[in-house]
């Protein structure tokens, strides 16, 4: 049985995030609760799930701040929270929250909360493999990332060289502490000995050849940090590999490395801009919807013991406007019984692929990745079971 709960911690120090929270207080408009949205999905019907509710969060740090919190909603307050290891405190609260849960299923915002579940499960199981699907590598200490952003601001590099733009991150001219947070939590979990076997699938910020040639120490330390963690044992299947081999061949390369016990952590930006818009970060282009399912189906078919799952970095404001929550539901479904759910309008078209009359539905299925053009004909690109 899945033990479903949510953690709505959102200590994003970016001005856009803060302004949106302030405006939500003034206007009275709030995003819909993610766990309520997921429980309504047809995608999860029939799956054995027990709802454990929500981890208590200080209101100013959540996606639902109170009017009394207006004075707290400033960049400096969030920066102080992050640099003083505030996320680690909440990681510990998550660890304690899941102690009695059978198979934790966390829905949330800040990806560093995954560490709390992993921390608890590492006490129950030996030899766990952590699989992370993420368009960014969350193993870079804040001080190193901040120095890289400093260099990027000075040199105005193009997007392709670094995997993201300087303006995508908050820069601090006085430096950042090496705290536990959403951009560094894998580094801390690994070096604290909480988890040894980590596989990261999908990062777009892997150092390019151009980047490796730059001599500036701020760039060198970023490259060396990335490469050192690889040498120490973290396996990184970056987008260059995925785009070269295809998602299925790329994931097959690491299936033999899996332990019997597997925890899967998904940053929903793995599908950013390609599959969905309900991700906190949309600064990179992720995978198509079907590509995500293909990866997860191969893991499921490996018959490993999936001891827990989380789906994080959800932008609750945008997630309700497209297929973000449907994809979350299918992620849960495919890792439960190997199937996905599609609305009848999609299934009918897939069953009659040679005579699809509704061109809009056809276009949607192509964008989702279920149909691709082969010569002059369309063909199905997903072999898994659809219900």
Strand order of the largest sheet: 2-1-3-8-7-4-5-6
CATH third-level topology of the largest domain: Arginase, Chain A
Written as H for each helix and E for each strand, in order along the chain, the element string is EHHEHHEHEHHHEHHEHHEHEHEHHEEE
How many beta-strand segments? 12
Shape: globular
- Based on secondary structure, the structural category is alpha/beta
Q: Number of helical segments?
A: 16
CATH C-level class of the largest domain is: Alpha Beta
Biggest β-sheet: count, sense, barrel?
Answer: 8 strands, parallel
Detail the poorly predicted runs: none
Helix content: 40-55%
CATH homologous superfamily descriptor of the largest domain = Ureohydrolase domain
* Number of domain modules: 2
Name the descriptors:
single chain; about 375 residues; two-stranded parallel sheet; alpha/beta; Arginase, Chain A; 2 domains; eight-stranded parallel sheet
Describe this structure in words.
- With 387 residues, the chain is an alpha/beta fold.
- It folds into two domains: 32-53 and 81-341, Arginase, Chain A (3-Layer(aba) Sandwich); 344-387, no CATH class.
- It is 40% helix and 15% strand.
- It contains 16 helices and twelve strands.
- The chain has helices spanning 15-27, 34-39, 75-83, 86-97, 114-124, 142-155, 159-162, 185-191, 209-212, 217-231, 239-245, 247-255, 289-301, 324-337, 344-351, 359-368; strands at residues 2-7, 49-54, 103-108, 128-133, 197-201, 235-237, 261-267, 305-312, 339-340, 371-374, 377-380, 385-386.
- The protein has an eight-stranded parallel sheet, with helices on both faces. It has a two-stranded parallel sheet with strand order 9-12.
- Helix 6 crosses helix 10.
- The longest helix has 15 residues, at 217-231.
- The chain is globular, with a radius of gyration of 21 Å.
- The two termini are 21 Å apart.
């Amino acid at each position: 049985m899945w033990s479903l709960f949510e953690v709505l911690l959102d200590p994003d120090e970016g001005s856009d995030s803060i302004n949106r929270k302030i405006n939500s207080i003034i206007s009275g408009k709030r995003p819909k609760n993610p766990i309520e949205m997921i429980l309504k999905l047809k995608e999860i019907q029939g799956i054995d799930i027990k709802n454990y509710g929500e981890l208590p969060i200080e209101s100013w740090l959540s996606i639902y701040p109170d009017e009394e919190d207006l004075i707290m909603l400033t960049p400096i307050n969030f920066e102080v929270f992050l640099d003083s290891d505030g996320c680690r405190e909440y990681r510990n609260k998550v660890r304690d929250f899941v102690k009695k849960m059978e198979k934790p299923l966390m829905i949330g915002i800040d990806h560093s909360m995954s560490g709390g579940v992993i921390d608890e499960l590492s006490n129950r199981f030996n030899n766990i493999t952590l699989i992370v699907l993420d368009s960014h590598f969350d193993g870079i200490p804040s001080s190193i990332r901040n120095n890289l952003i400093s260099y990027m601001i000075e040199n105005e590099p193009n997007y392709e060289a670094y995997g993201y733009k300087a303006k995508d991150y908050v820069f601090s001219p006085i430096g950042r502490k090496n705290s536990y947070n959403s951009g560094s939590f894998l580094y801390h979990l690994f070096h604290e000995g909480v988890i040894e076997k980590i596989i990261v699938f999908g990062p777009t910020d892997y150092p390019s050849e151009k980047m490796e040639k730059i001599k500036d120490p701020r760039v060198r330390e970023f490259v060396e940090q990335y490469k050192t963690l690889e040498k120490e044992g973290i396996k990184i299947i970056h987008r260059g590999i995925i785009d070269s081999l295809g998602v299925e061949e790329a994931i097959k390369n690491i299936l033999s490395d899996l332990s019997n016990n597997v925890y899967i952590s998904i940053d929903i930006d793995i599908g950013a801009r390609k599959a969905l818009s309900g991700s906190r970060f949309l600064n990179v282009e992720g995978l198509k919807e079907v590509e995500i399912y293909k990866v997860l189906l191969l893991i499921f078919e490996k018959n490993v013991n999936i001891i827990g799952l989380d789906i994080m970095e959800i932008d609750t404001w945008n997630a309700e406007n497209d297929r973000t929550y449907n994809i979350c539901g299918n992620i849960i479904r495919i890792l439960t019984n190997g199937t996905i759910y599609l609305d009848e309008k999609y299934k009918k078209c897939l069953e009659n692929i040679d005579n699809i009359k509704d061109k809009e539905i056809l276009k949607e299925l192509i964008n989702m990745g279920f149909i691709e053009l082969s010569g002059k004909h369309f063909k199905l690109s997903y072999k898994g079971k659809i219900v």
